[in-house]
Amino acid sequence: MNNKQTLLRNLPKVDKIISLLEEEEFFKDKPYKEIYNAVNESIIFFRKGILENTISEYSIEEIKNNIIKFLNKNLEFNLKRVINGTGTILHTNLGRSLFSKELLEHLQNSLCGYNNLEFNLKTGERGSRYSHIEDIISKVTGAEASLVVNNNAAAVMLCLNEFSKNTEVIISRGELVEVGGSFRIPDIMELSNAKLIEIGTTNRTHLIDYEKAISENTSMLLKVHTSNYHVSGFTKSVSNNEIAKLAREKNIVSMEDLGSGVLIDFSNYGLKKEPTILESIESGIDLITFSGDKLLGGPQCGIILGKKFLIDRLKKNQFLRAFRVCKMTISALEFVFKQYSDEKVAIEKNPTLNRILEPISSVFDRAILLKNSLEKIDISSDIIKTEAIIGGGSMPNAVINSYGVAIKSLDANKINRALLKEKIPIVGRIQNNQFIIDLKTIHFDEYSIIIENFKRFLESNNL
Q: For the stretch 186-211, what's the b/e string if a residue is b when 16 or more beta carbons lie within 10 angstroms of its beta carbon?
């Protein structure tokens, strides 16, 4: 019998290994099915290695360590924490807005037990889930009424279906936007059974274009804020005030899809001007829709603001049942809007606003700290100037000065591949053959994780 046959024959049976593992502390609180799968995977791994001549010897301890590796991998959640070193604050692929620790504590308090989601504590009878957030949203925005659905696409579709089903909606050709995931305004209009009437040109639309297009079958004038791209040069668009006035004169609904609505005037803090929710309301537009998880810095949802009699109609639309939000969204959104009662508090406590508006000196301080921490494990790096972006389909021309740490002494592609495989992956970017971590989206509590990941990279590559 040759050595390969001996190795295969001596591989322990799955049941025997499980019996041995049951005595060890590490495995006592693990699900039996997952332990069984990990043992089976490990035996297959060693058998394959023996047959392919990549394993010429093994020990029970090596098999056990391999089982632990498979078990830990199998017990990992698919949705996990990721460290964002890209410099894109609202990174759609990485979850957009962050929840603060205070918000998580609030969610724990309100959701770990039963709650009054649809129970009126004053009357002792059934209540409405939307009642918990209507007052605070109106207080902060000045809107007559509000409604929350599961995302902004749903908000737009609900409004179009209720007020423009089988009727005409007029929109400028320059505002027929497409956002991520192939969400297109024309497709949403078709799905809602509204008829699209295009006016103007890609770059120029005038008030008279709206006036000429209005017919007996017109139900709405729709304005869409081009939040994810910008047209410059020889351009002309019609203001909210003009559209709202024309709609009132013709007794039809005016609506604006802001996309990524913002409550803070960024131009007061040295950034590019972005139309605010408050300005849209003040213009007299009847209905306004926007996302909760973009510039607002809240949970994923779609928020509809508008005249009370219109919102009351939306609440009776049958699509609302399909688009309604859960208790976690309502609880998180109430918390976020309460912070907006004081702009200074919102900027300090809301992670999205804080990262957008923080001083550049704070980013530089973090860059120095990361560079020094890397030097302690013998990784040399340079601090470089970078340009961070807001992301999430928001403010496409807004660039925020930032700093990054560039590692040029190690293979950038190897670093990238290794860090993506970590228990807490790090997503950076490669530029000029250097792996770069932009400090705009890195904060102090992530440094220890970054350093430990790099230590493992050095060890695995014998560096």
A: eebbeebebbbbbbbeeeebbeebbe
| Number of independent structural domains in the chain | 3
**Cα–Cα distances in Å, from 36 out to 59, 73, 145?**
19, 14, 56
Q: What is the pLDDT of residue 463?
A: 73
Q: What distances in angstroms separate CA 416 from CA 92, 175, 376, 457, one per listed residue?
A: 20, 38, 21, 10
- Digit-coded pLDDT (tens) for 79-114: 999 999 999 999 999 999 999 999 999 999 999 999
CATH of the domain at 406: 3.90.1150.180
Of 134-138, 180-184, 380-384, 399-403, which range is least confident?
Answer: 180-184
pTM of the shown model = 0.90
Residue 291 and residue 191 share a domain? yes
Domain range for residue 343? 101-349
pLDDT for 142 equals: 94
77, part of any domain? no
- What does the alpha-carbon distance between residue 254 and residue 197 come to, in Å, rounded to a whole number? 14
Residue with tokens 């990485």: 94
